[in-house]
Write a structure and sequence with these properties.
The complex is a heterodimer of chains A (148) and B (304). Chain A is mainly α and 148 residues long. Chain A has one domain: Cytochrome c/b562 (Four Helix Bundle (Hemerythrin (Met), subunit A)). Chain A is built from 6 helices and no strands. Chain A is elongated. Chain B has helices at 2-22, 42-52, 54-58, 99-108, 123-126, 131-142, 166-173, 187-197, 249-258, 269-278, 283-294, and strands at 74-77, 80-83, 155-156, 224-225, 233-234. Chain B has a 3-stranded antiparallel β-sheet with strand order 1-2-3, with no helix packed on it. In chain B, helix 4 (99-108) crosses helix 6, helix 8 (187-197) packs across helix 11 and helix 9 packs across helix 11 (283-294). Chain B is globular, with a radius of gyration of 20 Å. Classes of the chains: A mainly alpha (148), B mainly alpha (304). Chains A and B meet through helix 1 and helix 6 of A and strand 5 and helix 10 of B.
Chain lengths: 148, 304
């Protein structure tokens, strides 16, 4: 191999590695953003359910839509190479039980979709919201780890 | 040379004899236990069962009945793997135990046969419990279903597999003190202190430990590495900026009731199992625990 070509290969490899690292960081940031969104939606929902905020049908539907969207997008955001870095709180067990992890998101998404249609008022939202948030803890127990 | 060998042999024998003498389970055994008067209160026993988180370790893993206490959970640690024993009221568990046996297990960390328990069973906290509460808890557990099954033996590395050595550990780290209320504080604060320090054994995970596996006083409640290993870190729960300094009592109570932090993050890891217990506690007890936690001395988060 000519020296110039060697250098070019090296540069390309470095660029690729840098790109991959950046992409991994993006993926970690993206999944954190989505879970932050889920947390914010849960705040909105809880405040309405508890009468700490007035009930708003559009907001209520948005809360559940946020969950459905998260359930759809999240499973693709844990590619190999994103086990660590970016202050991730993803547990190593995600990559050990990938099928179960993805299945849990799928089941959650289906469950939330199923109870979303019936939301008309505070009473129906309270029931749907309870179902939708019932599995947060079970999933975090296995797949989320605190690091600070 | 010969003399040196003899001297060495004598020293080894003396050291062995000293170890033997210092680790006699009877050494950490108190005299007669003052037995509580009166009938057991099962409802109070249930509160203590939930506050104590008994089910989190002793319920059979991967099934839904948290009152099936046949054990079997494997707890990993820096010393090896502990296999949680059966505490159901079956002959393989604590069936046939006397109240005296139970109180000594919870306070002194000794089995009815006189063997030391490893402090992975948090008797360092349970020792603070009152005899009446232990009676009630014992009665509650005795009323649950008896389940057969003797668990696996612990798999520990040398020298931690020498159970006798725990005797030395207890001499240094087990004070044998029952909880004493602080008369300058409110009744609810004292109730919270009792629940958090005693049955709740919160400090056992939320503190950093020393080389001997004992809680470092300066890091008590200031968080620490996950005692079960991995890269997790158990959070600082003192009201310091590196802990829960921006929380109020209602936030702590909310977490213990629903598992949600003020950011509406749902707690994960082993805290999820803790909340499965605390969510069953009476509201005033939850609020008392929150009051006590927010009154802890603020401490900077333990180093990693």
């Amino acid at each position: 191999m000519e020296p110039a070509l060697k250098l070019r290969t090296l540069l390309a490899a470095t660029a690729l590695a840098a790109f991959a690292t950046a992409a991994q960081a993006d993926v970690i940031a993206e999944r954190k953003d989505i879970m932050d969104g889920v947390g914010n939606a849960t705040r909105t929902g809880t405040q309405m359910v508890r009468g700490q905020a007035p009930f708003d049908l559009e907001q209520a539907r948005n809360v559940l839509a946020t969950y459905v969207n998260a359930a759809q997008v999240m499973p693709s955001l844990f590619p190999p190479g994103t086990e660590t870095g970016g202050e991730t709180s993803a547990a190593p067990s995600i990559w050990e039980n990938k099928a179960d992890f993805e299945q849990k998101f799928e089941a959650w998404g289906a469950e939330v979709s199923a109870v979303s249609g019936s939301v008309q008022d505070l009473e129906s939202f309270t029931a749907s919201f309870g179902t939708a948030t019932g599995s947060c803890r079970d999933c975090h127990e296995e797949y989320r780890v605190r690091t600070n | 040379m010969r003399r040196a060998i003899v001297l060495l042999a004598v020293l080894v024998i003396l050291a062995g004899a000293g170890f033997w003498a210092l680790t006699i389970p009877a050494l950490t055994r108190s005299g007669a236990i003052a037995m509580p008067a009166g009938e057991a209160d099962l409802a109070n026993g249930e509160v203590l069962f939930n506050a104590g988180g008994c089910a989190s370790c002793h319920a059979v893993p991967d099934q839904d009945d948290r009152l099936n206490l046949a054990g079997g959970l494997a707890l990993s640690s820096p010393y090896g793997t502990f296999h949680v024993p059966n505490i159901s009221p079956h002959a393989d568990g604590i069936g046939g135990w006397s109240l005296d046996d139970f109180i000594r297990a919870m306070r002194e960390g000794v089995s009815p046969e006189g063997l030391h328990y490893y402090p992975s069973f948090p008797y360092t906290s349970y020792q603070r419990m009152s005899a009446a509460d232990l009676r009630d808890l014992f009665a509650f557990i005795n009323g649950l279903q008896p389940v057969a099954g003797v668990g696996r033996r612990h798999e520990l590395a040398f020298p931690y597999n020498l159970r006798r050595g725990i005797g030395l550990w207890k001499l240094v780290y087990l004070d044998g003190e029952e909880f004493t209320p602080d008369p300058t504080r409110s009744e609810s604060w004292n109730r919270g202190a009792y629940l958090v320090e005693g049955p709740g054994h919160c400090a056992e995970c939320h503190s950093a430990r020393n080389f001997a596996g004992a809680i470092v006083p300066e890091y008590r409640y200031a968080g620490g590495p996950n005692p079960e290993g991995g890269r997790g870190f158990v959070p600082n729960i003192t009201p310091h900026e590196t802990g829960i300094g921006d929380w109020v009592e209602a936030d702590v109570a909310e977490l213990l009731m629903s598992g949600f932090t003020p950011d509406f993050d749902s707690v994960g890891g082993t805290m999820a199992a803790v909340v499965r217990n605390t969510e069953r506690l009476p509201q005033p007890d939850i609020e008392a625990m929150a009051e006590y936690v927010m009154s802890l001395p603020p401490r900077e988060r333990s180093p990693r």
